[in-house]
Amino acid sequence: MTATQKGSNNMKQARWKCPICNDGLLAPTRPRLDDVRRYCLPCSSKSGRLVERIAPALEAQRTRRSDARREKAKNARKRERARIERKHNSPREVARRKYTEQGEYGMNIKRETARLWKMLNKIPQTLEGATRTKSVVSRNKPPTVKLMKRGWRIDDSDGVWVSSRAAGIAYGSSISIAPNVSWETLAHEIIHCAGYHGHDRAFYYALKWLTETRWKMILDFSDVTRYGYIVDATIESQIASRVRAEFEKSE
Ligand SMILES: [Zn+2]
Ligand SMILES: [Zn+2]
Fold first, then answer.
1. Closest by alpha carbon to 143, among 178, 108, 116, 119?
2. Which of 229, 101, 92 is nearest to 150 (CA)?
């Protein structure tokens, strides 16, 4: 079949009517712009302006199509809203909100972070790295604490399972935590944000000072022979019951 045949066979016709005299005729649904059948010539010559004929069937079809389009767009918007709503209230999202706000024993993460950050302003000059810490702490807002995206999941009964090896990660002025972060982990990451990068003696003495100031007690470091994560366990064993009592009572 050639293009010409196809064109002539498939040429759809519509009834075009003059809006003024109502005179009509059959013409292609898409007449060329200069097709004389587009216009009512008697009315045009009477009014001195081109009077265009309209095709009611085509107008109706156009209205139907735009209605359908509008309806389709409306449904798409509705579906999108439902999707967002579902996502927002998914167990994972609910857990994300909860554990961004509260840590172990219901500790208020934001409040505790602000408190410890402010405390670091008073770090004694005698401690290694204290000058840098003071300048970091006085210049910057408390670190932002976010829940890590990966490394944890929600089980069927909405319990949270942490599979990440790191309970917390500090980078610059932000801290990424796993759900249910402990006070000890939060304090550890805050010391990193305050300018102590390695897990060396200076780091642990700053953490020791912060812990002692926060809990109004003295930590026993007499068993500490080398510095690294093992010292976190030493600290934790000496403050665990105070931390628990403090945050459980504030519930
Ligand atoms: Zn007319
Ligand atoms: Zn660390």
1. 116
2. 92
CA of 167 to the centre of ligand 2 (A): 10
Residue 170: strand, helix, or coil: strand
Q: How far is the CA of 63 from the centre of ligand 1 (A)?
A: 24
Query: E strand or H helix at 155, and its extent?
Result: none
Identity at 165, one-letter amino acid code: R
pTM: 0.69
Question: Taking 80 as the threshold, does the pLDDT of residue 207 lie above it?
Answer: yes
Place of tokens 């801290």: 175
Q: Is 167 exposed, middle or buried (0-12, 13-18, 19+ CB in 10 A)?
A: buried
Closest ligand (CA of 50): 1
Handedness of CA 43, 44, 48, 50 (dihedral sign): positive
Ligand 2 centroid to Cα of residue 192, in Å, is: 7
Distance in angstroms (rounded) separating the CA atoms of residues 192 and 129: 11
- Residues 205 and 188: their CA atoms lie apart, in Å, by 11
| Ligand minimally distant from the alpha carbon of residue 41 | 1
- Tell me how far the alpha carbon of residue 56 is from its chain's centroid: 50
Ligand 1 geometric centre to CA of 16 (Å): 11
Residue 171 is predicted with a pLDDT of 82
Higher-pLDDT residue of 184, 167? 184
